[in-house]
């Protein structure tokens, strides 16, 4: 008898392109179909056929407290009883803006939006409006949502499914985007020299996590900061994934580099559809109704979304969530390194706090070109063995794993055993 997941996927494929509402959810290249979720709680997911998994996707990042944490559910319920949307300012928006500005000091003013894509799209428009320039520098393998001008050498699902440069983006748009190798400051300097007075902004994931996970070399972010300041371009950190995840103040807190604009999403919404972008006041005040750059949203600052996000962020602070995430991450790392040492597999494990990635190759991995050398077939075998054993890692080499505060040391231990067996067999 066909599983319920298989039945649902067959129906989904007839009415939804590829059967999914976001390509990263399709298990293409893994030789199997996606499962459908019945429910999730803490670190666990149960599929519609009753199989239980330890989840390391965490709804692709937002679930830093795990699934359905009581504080978030209670906050949503309480907010909903007062109405689910107003299109009129509500007090939650002010609390959220104040919290963001307190935790991320480079942000003096902030606008809420409904997704990470909207956040990066708005940053780019604002940077262009502020500088009165058109060109943007991005980095190969960095993913900034499905914004036209940023779907150039993009990561995440665009990379997984072999479409890093999307169809449907006019060449005239793509031509305004200069894509460079991550960690290559000489290439950035050359681009600034070759396009004098034309570059509005440099946008990057300060810790790239959409082509696997790798890190800025010492001095790279600082050098970008200097080049941007020197040439009058804005530095935009896309912290949709790293914001409130790697530290309370995001990657910019860890690396001590202040961008002009920051894009946020994922953790900020507690699982509801939220994004935000903010930065220096003089730049943010270029937004309508104060300035000439238009940006808007019917559901932006939605009370349920704000309540959920505030509840999650405050709980993370209350329980010192980032310390807990670091401890759990360190536990997983040391177990995986043990396995790699014992089995002698030439793999490379990367981690920052609760984010991690295993590349099936000897390192170093410092950019897209090196990440792409990972053995995809070995990854697929590993992913499938783990999934069959009840451990759900992201279904692509070009994604990052997430641990939540709801993961217990016992679950990490069980995961380590599954990883060990999957690597060894
Ligand atoms: C997920 C992600 C986005 C896009 O956010 P959506 O909410 O999916 O639109 C943008 N940038 C980064 C770094 C991301 O990880």
Blueprint (SSEs and pairs):
Layout: H1 4-15, E1 37-41, E2 44-47, E3 52-55, H2 70-80, H3 91-103, E4 109-113, H4 116-131, E5 135-139, H5 157-160, H6 171-174, E6 177-180, H7 185-194, E7 199-204, H8 220-231, E8 234-238, H9 251-255, E9 261-264, E10 275-279, H10 281-284, H11 303-318, H12 321-343, E11 348-352, E12 355-359, H13 368-371, H14 376-388, E13 391-392, E14 401-402, H15 409-424
Parallel strand pairs: 3-13, 5-6, 5-7, 7-8, 8-9
Antiparallel strand pairs: 1-2, 2-3, 4-10, 9-10, 11-12, 12-14
Helix pairs in contact: 2-11, 3-11, 7-8, 12-15, 14-15
The structure holds pyridoxal-5'-phosphate.
Outline = globular
How far apart the termini lie comes to 29 Å
Corresponding CATH architecture of the largest domain? 3-Layer(aba) Sandwich
Arithmetic mean pLDDT? 96
Total separate domains: 2
Parts with pLDDT < 50 across at least 5 consecutive residues: none
Work out the helicity level: 25-40%
Concise overview:
This protein has 15 helices and 14 strands.
Q: What can you see in these coordinates?
A:
The chain is an alpha/beta fold and 425 residues long. It has 2 domains: 4-68 and 319-424, Alpha-Beta Complex (Aspartate Aminotransferase, domain 1), CATH 3.90.1150.10; 70-317, Type I PLP-dependent aspartate aminotransferase-like (Major domain) (Aspartate Aminotransferase, domain 2). 38% of the residues lie in helices and 14% in strands. It is built from 15 helices and 14 strands. The chain has helices at 4-15, 70-80, 91-103, 116-131, 157-160, 171-174, 185-194, 220-231, 251-255, 281-284, 303-318, 321-343, 368-371, 376-388, 409-424, and strands spanning 37-41, 44-47, 52-55, 109-113, 135-139, 177-180, 199-204, 234-238, 261-264, 275-279, 348-352, 355-359, 391-392, 401-402. Strands 4-10-9-8-7-5-6 form a 7-stranded mixed β-sheet, with helices on both faces. A 4-stranded mixed β-sheet has the order 1-2-3-13. Strand 11 and strand 12 form a beta hairpin. Helix 2 (70-80) runs antiparallel to helix 11 (303-318), helix 7 packs parallel to helix 8 and helix 12 (321-343) runs parallel beside helix 15. The radius of gyration is 21 Å and the shape is globular. The mean pLDDT is 96. The chain binds pyridoxal-5'-phosphate (PLP). The site of pyridoxal-5'-phosphate has 14 residues, from helix 4.
């Amino acid at each position: 008898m066909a599983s319920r997941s298989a039945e649902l996927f067959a129906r989904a494929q007839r009415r939804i392109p590829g059967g999914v509402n976001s390509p990263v959810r399709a298990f293409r290249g893994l030789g199997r179909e996606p499962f459908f979720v019945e429910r999730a709680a803490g670190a666990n997911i149960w599929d519609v056929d009753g199989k239980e998994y330890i989840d390391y996707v965490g709804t692709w990042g937002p679930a830093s407290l795990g699934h359905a944490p009581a504080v978030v559910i209670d906050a949503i319920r309480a907010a909903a009883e007062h109405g689910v949307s107003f299109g009129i300012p509500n007090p939650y928006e002010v609390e959220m803006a104040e919290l963001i500005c307190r935790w991320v000091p480079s942000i003096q003013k902030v606008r809420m939006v409904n997704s990470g894509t909207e956040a990066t799209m708005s940053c780019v428009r604002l940077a262009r409006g502020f500088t009165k320039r058109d060109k943007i520098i991005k980095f190969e393998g960095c993913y900034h949502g499905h914004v036209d001008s940023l779907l150039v050498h993009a990561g995440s699902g665009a990379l997984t499914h072999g479409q890093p440069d999307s169809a449907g983006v006019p060449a005239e748009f793509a031509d305004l985007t200069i894509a460079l190798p991550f960690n290559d400051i000489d290439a950035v300097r050359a681009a600034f020299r070759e396009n004098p007075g034309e570059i509005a902004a440099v946008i990057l994931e300060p810790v790239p996590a959409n082509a696997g996970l790798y890190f800025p070399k010492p001095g790279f972010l600082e050098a970008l900061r200097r080049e941007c300041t020197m040439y009058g371009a804005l530095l935009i950190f896309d912290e949709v994934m790293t914001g409130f995840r790697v530290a309370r103040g995001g990657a910019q807190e860890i690396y001590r580099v202040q961008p002009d604009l920051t894009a946020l999403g994922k953790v900020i919404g507690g699982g509801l559809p939220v994004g935000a972008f903010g930065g220096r006041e003089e730049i943010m005040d270029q937004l309508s109704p104060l300035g000439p750059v238009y940006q808007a949203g019917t559901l932006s600052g939605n009370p349920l979304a704000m309540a959920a996000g505030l509840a999650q962020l405050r709980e993370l602070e209350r329980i010192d969530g980032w310390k807990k995430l670091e401890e759990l991450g360190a536990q997983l790392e040391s177990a995986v390194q043990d396995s790699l040492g014992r089995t002698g597999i030439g793999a490379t494990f990367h981690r920052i706090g609760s984010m991690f990635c295993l590349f099936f190759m000897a390192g170093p991995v410092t950019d897209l070109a090196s990440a792409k050398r990972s053995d995809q077939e070995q990854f697929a075998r590993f992913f499938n063995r783990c999934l069959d054993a009840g451990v759900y890692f992201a279904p692509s080499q070009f994604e990052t794993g997430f641990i939540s505060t709801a993961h217990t040391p016992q679950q990490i231990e069980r995961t380590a055993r599954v990883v060990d067996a999957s690597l060894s067999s």
